Input
Amino acid sequence: MAPLRARTVETEGQVKGALAILCGKNMTRRECRSCGNRAAADPRAPLEAIGPHDRDAQCRRAMPYNPPMARRIALVEDDSTIRQNYVDALTRAGYEVVAFGDRPSASRALSARLPELAIIDIGLGADIDGGFQLCRELRSASARLPIIFLSARDSDFDIVSGLRLGADDYLTKDVSLPHLLARIAALFRRVDAADEAPAAGEVLNRGPLALDAQRMAAAWRGKPVGLTVTEFWMVHSLARHPGHVKDRDQLMRDAEMVVDDGTITSHVKRIRKKFLAVDPAFAAIETVYGMGYRWHEGE
Output
């Protein structure tokens, strides 16, 4: 497989939301639209080849770039070239990256210290489903850890399997860098939203259901239900307005994810399975065929 090449960013929104970087910083495209200064570089070249923008010609209209606090991301990818390209791209985006080429080394290191987000390939060398096993281990260690599968395998079976194992997202390796960075940022926003929940009214109670956004904890009839970040916000979206039908677009928006209908269905099935493990009579999530899902008030 050809190694990943960082793409040039083509729009103002992508520049602001992805790799960043206008006047006085490294450019992410040939021309800064704020001042018109052009970089003498092939637009197909990796970002590092474009070089620094001339600081003597800074544009007063350029937006300031405030790098985020470094978040720690674990990357597990067996192809050394692809792995290094992803490491470089994520590092440029302001993340701290620890990378592994196989499941055993990743398992040992991550069992000692969990990352803030994990990106995992499925096939890891001779271990064709090693990423699935690693996902199980990480999900057992933390129900809250955001996990993304990033794989060349694009079959429905693999996508559904990954989500059922507890991954929050599943992307294929043809995804663009801005898209990947946007997905990562969305997962971190969801975690931050829970951390920043107000002290008062932070627990949503709906009959037997209790959702604590501060601790990202869910309980049903007093028993804990281990939900992932994505699952938690999907349940929160439904339970916040009992009886209201939420279509797939609304659930995606509330959970800050962009997936197809089949992926939403897989998440809902997994959520139901977790509640049923606690209460075999659980029936609070209703499917409204042709419309979406709703939280049943009668529970």
Remarks:
- The radius of gyration is 21 Å.
- Residues 1-68 have pLDDT under 50 and may be disordered.
- The CA atoms of residues 203 and 212 lie 4 Å apart.
- The chain is about 35% helix and 15% strand.
